Amino acid sequence: MTRVLVVEDDPQLVRALVINLQARRYGVDAAPDGTTALRIAAARQPDVVLLDLGLPDMDGVDVIKGLRGWTRVPILVLSARQASDEKVAALDAGADDYITKPFSMDELLARLRAAVRRTEEVPLAPGATLVETADFTIDLLAKKAVRGDHDVRLTPTEWHLLEILVTSPGRLITQKHLLREVWGVSQSNKTNYLRVYMAQLRRKLETDPAHPRYLITEPGMGYRFEE
Asked: What is the 3-state secondary structure (H, E, C) of the chain?
């Protein structure tokens, strides 16, 4: 059973989420504040976290940072904050997705399913498990990236995006395909997600992120990985 931790201080929204998730056979734990959320996460080891940013005891971004100190569990932010800098701050802290309130339950569940898919092991063909470049190495089987002598820490979303690109070298992967595979959506207005995450991957992997050698943008179309 997939276990979801709901971190939200609005009792009505918590009740709606719990009812909808349990009806679809998810296990659910709920926390009304950040301190409780971090304690439950350590004890229960959830598979996905749904997190409100406006908590009574601490900012949700601090909860993300607390979780990212020890786990790569997918974190989906649920927030009424719509400013782009708020979204970028949450994503940069390690969130995997950002859903603006009010939201439809169908969209939330689609994003949740996509988050769960990202963490599932996908069988790889023999010989297709290691991608080596002059600057970094990607071990698809171990889900590990190494640059120089150091491991590169990637969030589940960053890893899934990179995995799609490096397993199809030289091929243009459309924005629509990436949005559907990584976030469970295909709306063109979500392309800012791709820009943020591609920028993060370049900062972590490229020698010159402003002039990428490996993670290439095809303006208005998508992205491709060049070996």
From this structure: CCEEEEECCCHHHHHHHHHHHHHCCCEEEEECCHHHHHHHHHHHCCCEEEEECECCCCEHHHHHHHHHCCCCCCEEEEECCCCHHHHHHHHHHCCCEEEECCCCHHHHHHHHHHHHHHHCCCCCCCCCCEEECCCEEEECCCCEEEECCEEECCCHHHHHHHHHHHCCCCCCEEHHHHHHHHHCCCCHHHHHHHHHHHHHHHHHHCCCCCCCCCEEEECCCEEEECC
pLDDT by residue for the chain (227 residues), tens digit each? 899 999 999 999 999 999 999 999 999 999 999 999 999 999 999 999 999 999 999 999 999 999 988 888 899 999 888 777 888 888 878 888 889 898 999 999 999 998 888 776 555 454 568 899 999 999 988 888 999 889 998 888 899 899 999 988 888 888 888 888 887 766 666 788 888 899 999 999 999 999 999 999 988 888 999 98
Specify the pTM: 0.64
